[in-house]
Amino acid sequence: MNPVILLIDDDMDDIMLLKEALISINKDCRILETLDGREALVLLKEFRDNNKLPNLVVLDISMPLLDGRELLALLKREEKLKDLSIVVMTTSSNISDINYCKQFNVDLITKPAELPFLYKTAERLLSYCTP
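The structure corresponding to this sequence follows.
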């Protein structure tokens, strides 16, 4: 399987570490990245128009311009994007964030603080990918 995964996070260090973990588990996965929700929305609409949606979107909540909550709501309202496989991955373990994600049937994963747990998280993320 050659999954395409879109990472949306304003923290480049988090993107680099997760990208490295994902590729170490599946060297054939293609990782795309954006630093904010607006840029991600533009990119996803281009993918939609070309019928080439990613297998998974990994979304942070706290971002500038268009945060993860707003982006998630927009994606779930968009007919051709609402069925995207999305996982929210954030430093938050706030119950209101968890409940917000649940209303969209989206899992929230707390960003791991230690590297070994990052690889476990990357394995979990890859399990969300659909061919």
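Strands lie at 4-8, 30-34, 56-59, 86-90, 107-110.
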